[in-house]
Specification:
heterodimer, A: about 475 residues, mainly alpha, Formate dehydrogenase/DMSO reductase fold, about 70% helix, B: about 200 residues, 2 domains, four-stranded antiparallel beta sheet
């Protein structure tokens, strides 16, 4: 017999129905049904045709990527359209884009945990997994862009026969430390959050290889109250450490540009503006994944319309911050009056034979389109939200492309102005990287707990006895 | 006693957080020290009922952070100012503002590792072969049941008396004897039956 969780007070339920009080907790569920619903997604042995279909599609992208990278390693970065002066383009754009997407995961997990926002519980695992795989994908691009990727370890300080060290005054070396720290800490945070759920999967699966693998991953977690206490302390501390880390990572990424002297890059607003943009695109990706997963696995009880609503509000808020960045950047440039800066910003806006189309498209995608989210009906419509999020993802990619390419194209010397035209290899590297992201993500969806089971249990009404809420 | 040597402890099953909190409190008041409770999520106040004091994890994290930041800064100072001084744009060799980002990342990295590894170390994990896993019913501790275990290492522990005591806490189902060896029989102790 299942434990009967006491229902919320009638009044609360009425408020949920009337839409006056957001519902983030699966109130119709009890401990048993929460455990069953979430863990059955991982334990169910049936093949799901759409999952296999997506895996094949992304497998094709993945092998495209592998092929392009092989060609790149054999031939060199000359297969891309990069030139002098535009030596950074698609690869760095995609790096910044993917790592930006990776920001929402830790932000949702860590920052919202510190803020005691109960709605994080249904989406944090998905967002964290997205972070890990997005950072993995992002990390490939600067490596491939190195020219000789097999010497990537030269970026690390190790005692070598050449007696030289990496230049720690360079933002590119900061990047190495920031991104690898971010990857490791996100991985720890994700894995640590999963340990109790892996124990649930271990205890629920039939004896065999699966049970053993879950058992090894769960490390003998036995749900002891003493363990829980230390676990929660460590988890909270990890959240406290991860929150400033998220802010620092994209600030460091923005320093790649901001501490250079290139007009259009040398901007003090870049760190906060990049962080806001990163969270913006990250939330867009979380919304896309959540809408797809709640539909595919019937998780409407767990990821409710109120979850989508509140994420849409955050999308709107970060859109406004990012737009403020655009405005501030333009204003300060014209007010400052440096002729090279003014030239870059002006030609971005008006040179329709070069980058102006991209600039106006990205303003539309990132500033104009998200304004629809002021309307409650739009925030609660899956279709609208899905499309807006995809538009935002496109817009944020174009924003980074614009910043990187247009600034490099025309800097100080008119005699060395240039223009970047992507080759088919540029496009294939980027498109292929989507497969590199989705293959591990699909495996995660299939084999690991998609939602935090133990945290959802703790949110159920009556989980802490009457009067012992958090 | 012979029986006690192969027994890890006695396990009682409960169905709600209130029941486990009350049972833990009563068991502690009865003078049992080696008591542990098992719950499918963190039940607030349960660790306090078990007599847990402040955790050592925060101090470990602080130490980790200080070590990380120290090592991080020293690494940059040594390589940039001592071992291979190099004039980069006229900056001083020890251009500390430029060393802050890496120092910060190292702080976070080592502190996070300290939090994670410290949690595992103090909890004694990984421990995949704990005697509790010899009990089939215990699988539900990670799902929807709350368990109280009085361990055989307790001074007051006696298979019969303790089983009787656990029976007075109104558990659901029989009191379960937790064998230390997996081969041992997993039968409920006859002593657990109420007289």
């Amino acid at each position: 017999m299942a434990t009967e969780a006491p229902k919320l007070e009638r009044r609360d339920e009425e408020l949920h129905v009337l839409g006056l009080k957001p519902q983030y907790v699966p109130i119709e569920h009890n401990l048993q049904s929460v455990t069953d619903t979430i863990s059955d997604i991982s334990l169910d042995q049936r093949r799901r045709p759409y999952w296999v279909g997506l895996l094949l599609l992304n497998g094709a992208l993945f092998f495209t990527f592998a092929g392009v990278v092989t060609y790149l390693l054999i031939t060199g970065v000359g297969i891309w359209g990069i030139n002098i002066p535009v030596a950074w383009s698609f690869a760095i754009t995609s790096f910044v884009w993917w790592i930006g997407i990776g920001h929402a995961g830790t932000l949702i997990s860590a920052f919202l945990l510190l803020m005691h926002q109960p709605w994080r519980t249904s989406i944090n695992r998905i967002a964290e997994a997205m972070t890990i795989f997005a950072v993995m994908t992002a990390g490939l691009f600067p490596l491939l862009h190195l020219g000789r990727p097999w010497f990537f370890y030269w970026l690390l300080p190790y005692s070598n026969s050449m007696s030289v060290w990496p230049q720690f005054r360079s933002a590119l070396v900061w990047d190495v430390f920031a991104v690898s720290t971010y990857f490791l800490v996100s991985l720890l945070f994700w894995y640590m959050g999963m340990i109790p759920d892996l124990a649930t999967l271990r205890d629920r699966s039939q004896p065999g290889l699966r049970k053993e693998i879950y058992g090894i991953l769960a490390m003998g977690w036995r749900s002891s109250a003493r363990h829980w206490r230390r676990y929660e302390t460590a988890y909270l501390l990890l959240a406290g450490l991860a929150t400033p880390l998220v802010i620092s990572v994209h600030s460091v990424v923005s320093s790649d540009f901001a501490i250079s002297l290139v007009p259009g890059w040398h901007e003090t607003v870049f760190p906060p503006y990049f962080v806001a943009g990163a969270v913006f695109s990250g939330f867009a990706m979380v919304i896309v994944l959540c809408i797809a997963l709640r539909k595919a696995y019937h998780l409407q009880d767990f990821i409710t319309r109120d979850h989508l609503d509140v994420m849409a509000k955050l999308l709107l808020a970060t859109s406004l911050i990012t737009s403020y960045g655009y405005l501030s950047e333009q204003t300060v440039t014209y007010y400052g009056g440096d002729q090279h800066d003014v030239h870059v910003y002006w030609y971005r806006l008006v040179a329709f034979d070069k980058y102006a189309w991209i600039v106006w498209t990205l303003f539309t995608c990132n500033t104009v389109v998200p304004q629809i989210l002021w309307f409650r009906r739009a925030r609660r419509s899956q279709a609208v939200l899905f499309v807006v999020s995809l538009i935002v993802l496109l817009g944020m990619w174009l924003e980074r492309y614009m910043i990187i390419c247009s600034s490099l194209s025309e800097d100080y010397l008119p005699s060395s102005y240039g223009f970047f035209k992507p080759t088919v290899w540029d496009v294939l590297t980027y498109v292929g990287s989507i497969g590199f992201f989705f293959i591990p993500f699909l495996l995660f969806v299939r084999y690991l707990p998609l939602l935090s089971i133990s945290e959802t249990r703790a949110l159920l009404p009556g989980a802490h006895g009457p009067g012992v809420g958090r | 006693m012979n029986a006690q040597q192969r027994v890890h402890g006695l396990l009682a099953e409960f169905w709600t957080p209130e029941e486990i909190l009350k049972a833990t409190r009563v068991a502690r008041q009865a003078g049992y020290q080696d008591v542990d409770a098992y719950t499918p999520y963190t039940v607030e106040g349960l660790a306090e009922e078990l007599g847990m004091r402040r955790s050592r994890i925060p101090s470990l994290v602080l130490i980790g952070g200080l070590v990380g930041a120290g090592v991080g800064f020293f690494m940059q100072y040594y390589t940039m100012a001592v071992d291979y001084p190099y004039n980069s744009g006229g900056r001083p060799y020890n251009s500390w503002p430029a060393f802050i980002p890496v120092t910060f990342e190292m702080l976070i990295l080592v502190a996070s590792l300290a939090a994670f590894l410290g949690m595992l170390l103090i909890n004694g994990l990984p421990h995949p072969n704990h005697p509790l896993f010899n009990v089939a019913e215990f699988a539900r501790a990670s799902q929807d049941r709350y368990f109280l275990c009085i361990e055989a290492s307790d001074e007051k522990f006696d298979v019969h008396e303790t089983a009787q005591f656990l029976g007075t806490l109104q558990p659901h189902g029989p009191i379960i004897v937790v064998p230390i060896e997996p081969e041992a029989v997993e039968e409920p102790d006859p002593a657990a039956k109420p007289n």
